[in-house]
Specification:
seven-stranded mixed β-sheet; 354 residues; two-stranded parallel sheet; 13 helices; D-Maltodextrin-Binding Protein, domain 2; alpha/beta; 9 strands
């Protein structure tokens, strides 16, 4: 009897031991599967879309290429950036809607074209707001610029940094040196009430025309002139259908690098920091490239035979006074507090420089 009891204990010991081993092996298998699954997730490549409206030879596209290179390097190839230039992902409003929904992750879009969605960004459309580029950069890169970018957040879009096209210049078929020179002319404009008010205050009419139709509209005399930075005037060869380029530096055309907040918030914090750092760092590089390119653009326009007229500071002051109604429109219809802050910041920047 005693022998049978010992045998039973041994039998059950073997059964229990065997069960433990089987369970351990099963758990180990599950742990390995989980580990493998996590590894696959960590190593999975994420493809994002970066859209803008410029041709591939511009500083804007070159900045996008550098963005791609840096992001892919800093994320060890986990993020792959696909670049879509020349509005391949749609025009400005279409790309902005895609950012809001998360369908598109990154975009570089002109502030002026977003004025209907985020009216505060019309600040850049105000004639003769910035006395020079350096003042504009200090304003945009400081707390004030960040406050402007935060107006995008209500649209579920995250503003990262201000890039640029540069100062706008006028083109027409005669020089535009005084307010009287604008009287009776019809200028192409973007969908910005501030810009339209600028032309009204100079005694001119304005017509909203898509940028893609601008060359033909000038060629067919549907409009008499237009305003754009040198990068656009040159790349679109507008000098071929206009007799005079007036270097007025009357308005600043900024671009905003934006991320889809829908997508951005899915990233871990360390990766979010990388995207912010890369986007902001490249703003300085892109601006310098635009300035360097402008010397080349001037040479191209001169060689084309189109006349270049450079306004004096006194002539600019007269135009500034004549277009002050555009500032008052921003004050009364957009945001008086933002405008006053901008004036104060600019005045402070100028005082510190002097």
């Amino acid at each position: 009897m005693r022998g049978i009891q010992v045998l039973n204990r041994s039998f059950w010991s073997v059964i229990i031991f065997t069960s433990i081993v089987v369970a351990f092996v099963a758990c180990s298998g599950n742990m390995n599967e989980d580990s493998s699954s996590n590894k696959d997730t960590d190593d999975e490549q994420i493809i994002i879309k970066y859209g803008h409206g410029f041709m591939t030879e511009t500083p804007h596209h070159q900045a996008a290429e550098r963005f791609k290179e840096r992001i892919e390097t800093r994320t060890d190839g986990q993020i792959i950036v696909e670049i879509y230039p020349a509005d391949q992902l749609g025009v400005v409003h279409q790309q902005f809607e895609q950012l809001k929904s998360g369908e598109q992750e990154v975009a570089l879009l002109p502030a002026a074209r977003l004025s209907e969605i985020v009216p505060e960004l019309q600040l850049f459309d105000l004639p003769y707001l910035f006395p020079d580029r350096e003042t504009a950069y200090e304003l945009m890169d400081g707390d004030f610029g960040q406050e402007l970018l935060e107006f995008l957040e209500k649209e579920n879009v995250r503003g990262i940094a201000f890039y640029e096209d540069g100062f706008k210049q006028f083109t027409s078929n005669h020089a535009l040196k005084t307010p009287e020179d604008f009287h009776g002319l019809n200028f192409r404009t973007m969908e910005s009430e501030i810009i339209m008010e600028q032309f009204r205050s100079l005694g001119a009419d304005s017509t909203q025309i898509d940028i893609g139709d601008l060359y033909v509209s000038l060629e067919n005399k549907a409009v008499d002139g237009q305003e754009n930075p040198l990068v656009t005037i040159t790349n679109m060869k507008l000098y071929d259908v206009q007799d005079v380029v007036t270097i007025s530096d009357h308005g600043y055309l900024g671009h905003v690098l934006m991320y889809s907040n829908e997508w951005f918030m899915t990233l871990p914090e360390d990766m979010q920091r990388k995207f912010i750092e890369v986007g902001q760092d490249l703003a300085n590089w892109q601006r310098k490239q635009v300035q360097e390119e402008e010397r080349y653009y001037m040479e191209v326009i001169e060689k084309s035979g189109t006349e270049i007229v450079k306004l004096t500071e006194e002539q600019k002051d007269v135009l500034k006074e004549a277009t002050s109604e555009a500032h008052e429109m921003y004050r009364s219809e957009v945001n008086e507090v933002i405008l006053e802050k901008a004036y104060e910041e600019i005045e402070q920047i100028i005082l510190l420089k002097n």
